[in-house]
Amino acid sequence: MPVVVACLFCPGCAVLTTRQMDAVNQFARTSNNFSAYPSRIITALAELRVKRGIYFANSVHDPQTHLTELDNLYSAMISDFAVSAKADISFRVIDKYAVALLLLSSRAHAANLDSQALRTGHSLESLLSTYNQIPGVKAVPTGMGSLTGSLLQAGGDQIIRRKQAKALQEFVPAADTIMRVMIGNLLDYLENTNIDFLISNEERSLASNYRSFLNQRTPLVGNDRDYLDMKQDLDGIKALRSATIVAANQILKTHASLLAALEKPDDLNETAAALQSMYDNVNAVKTAYGKISAVQK
After folding, report:
1. Which of 57, 81, 101, 259 yields a CA-CA distance of 20 to 30 A from 67?
2. What pLDDT tens digit does each residue of the chain (297 aa) get?
3. Number of neighbouring beta carbons within 10 Å of residue 173
4. Could you tell me the pTM of the whole model?
């Protein structure tokens, strides 16, 4: 279902105000790379499961049983790291949309901004088309790529400003439906019962497995530190999940407020408040993210 794209430049099109452009830019900067946070929840759980499982494997004396435990851990790790196609593409669309908004609201017009916009547009369009081919999903609008891809075909600051304004006035409303779907997918992923099970399983198994290790081995100080680190990581994973759900909902609310601000620029106070809440929520996510030590590459 392609988006109907009007001419990106006309002499009568008003340039957006500085506050409007700054609001778009702040939204883009705050939401950029947001998908790293929900992804880390699964990564951290997988790493925690491996670390905890190794302690359990070391409580087993029989070599074959020990090896079987390690093989099972490896198989579970591969499964845990896998993300569904719908969730994976949803994360990438959210990030690519933020990159597109950064380009459309940029005050700095680098010499290669043309090629950046073209690549971003093509990439976003490819992601949306791929998403629509996933069985069972509700199709989202396509045609978004042309809005960024044809951004800077003419020179001159005033011309560029008008083209940016026109592109944003069409791009943000067209993307609102897409953002609702993608953030909805992200929330489905975060609130998935499988994540509930993985967290509950670690809560049940951590003390039990370490107790088995203590029954068979004399612990070193480092072992006890590992146990405390794992407990802290589990608390961090739960905090990250809760904070990311709050932030994802706020991103959606802020995007709706941003859309209203582009249509009615007279009062940006509500949008400013929404952007501040979004910034605070994402910072809370970053704080929780930084406290998890289980994810190691």
Report:
1. 81
2. 444 333 333 334 456 788 888 899 999 999 998 988 988 888 898 899 999 999 999 999 899 999 999 999 998 888 777 777 788 889 889 998 998 888 888 776 554 566 676 778 788 889 999 999 998 888 888 877 666 655 544 444 555 677 777 778 888 888 898 999 999 999 988 887 688 888 999 999 999 999 999 999 999 999 999 999 999 999 999 999 999 999 999 999 999 999 988 887 667 888 999 999 999 999 999 999 988 974 444
3. 13
4. 0.83
Q: What's the rounded Cα separation, in Å, for the pair 269 and 261?
A: 9
**Residues 80 and 51 sit within 8 Å (Cβ to Cβ):** no
Specify the residue for token string 């400013």: 272
Torsion of CA 248, 260, 21, 143, to 10 degrees: 70
Locate 84 and state its tokens: 């569904």
